């Protein structure tokens, strides 16, 4: 059986603040790469947008966001060998597609404390304090710029 990449959807959620927008980050209870955008697998028959909104609801209990668009940007990576050892399938990594959305200014986030144990609304300039992997910082920064273009 040929190795494949798992289809995944991620969503950059912006919330309007006095000057500009804040970005929603979620924290997964793990040692590395714990802070990230809401994301998860795309189920059969689901569009990237549908999957992204479902994951946002599952991980952050956030609904009522206005979808701004879908990015051309795709992030594909291989799982580390140590992680693959525990997978019973032929999935070798993830291929993540991105959606942009605008949350109401008074949006509230509720995390389950298990899959996601914390959240933060941050300014773009704060991103490197949360996210250590430079390529992910670049992706989120690019997505933020794209989202602002959609809002213009």
Structural notes for this entry:
The model has no long low-confidence stretch (mean pLDDT 93). Strand 2 (20-27) and strand 3 (35-36) form a beta hairpin. The protein has one domain: Alpha-Beta Complex (Nucleoside Triphosphate Pyrophosphohydrolase). The chain is α+β, with helices and mostly antiparallel strands and 152 residues long. The longest helix has 18 residues, at 134-151. It has helices at 48-60, 81-84, 127-130, 134-151, and strands spanning 4-17, 20-27, 35-36, 39-41, 66-78, 91-102, 118-122. Strands 1, 2, 3, 4, 5, 6 and 7 form a 7-stranded mixed beta sheet that branches.
CATH topology call = Nucleoside Triphosphate Pyrophosphohydrolase
Total DSSP E strands: 7
Largest sheet: 7 strands, mixed
Q: Shape, please? A: globular
Q: Which CATH class applies here? A: Alpha Beta
Q: For this structure, what is the CATH homologous superfamily? A: Nucleoside Triphosphate Pyrophosphohydrolase
Mean pLDDT: 93
* Oligomeric state: single chain
Structural class: alpha+beta
**How much helical structure, as a percent, in the residues?**
25-40%
Distance between the termini: 46 Å
Q: Low-confidence runs (pLDDT<50, min 5 residues)?
A: none
**How many domain regions?**
1
Proportion in β-strands: 35-45%
Order of helices and strands: EEEEHEHEEHH
Number of helices: 4
Radius of gyration: 15 Å
In the CATH hierarchy, the architecture is Alpha-Beta Complex
Keywords:
single chain; alpha+beta; Nucleoside Triphosphate Pyrophosphohydrolase; 7-stranded mixed β-sheet; 4 helices; 7 strands
Draw up the topology in text.
Layout: E1 4-17, E2 20-27, E3 35-36, E4 39-41, H1 48-60, E5 66-78, H2 81-84, E6 91-102, E7 118-122, H3 127-130, H4 134-151
Parallel strand pairs: 1-6
Antiparallel strand pairs: 1-2, 1-4, 2-3, 2-7, 5-6
């Amino acid at each position: 059986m040929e190795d494949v990449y798992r289809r995944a959807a991620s969503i950059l959620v912006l919330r309007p603040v006095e000057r500009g927008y804040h970005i929603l980050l979620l924290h997964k209870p793990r040692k590395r790469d714990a802070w990230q955008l809401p994301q998860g697998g795309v189920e059969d028959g689901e569009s990237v947008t549908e999957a992204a909104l479902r994951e946002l609801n599952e991980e952050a209990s956030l609904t009522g966001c206005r979808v701004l668009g879908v990015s051309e940007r795709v992030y594909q990576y291989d799982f580390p060998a140590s992680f693959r050892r525990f997978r019973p399938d032929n999935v070798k990594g993830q291929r993540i597609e991105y959606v942009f959305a605008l949350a109401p200014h008074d949006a509230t986030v509720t995390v389950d404390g298990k899959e996601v144990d914390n959240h933060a609304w941050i300014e773009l300039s704060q991103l490197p304090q949360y996210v250590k992997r430079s390529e992910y910082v670049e992706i989120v920064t690019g997505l933020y710029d794209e989202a602002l273009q959609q809002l213009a």
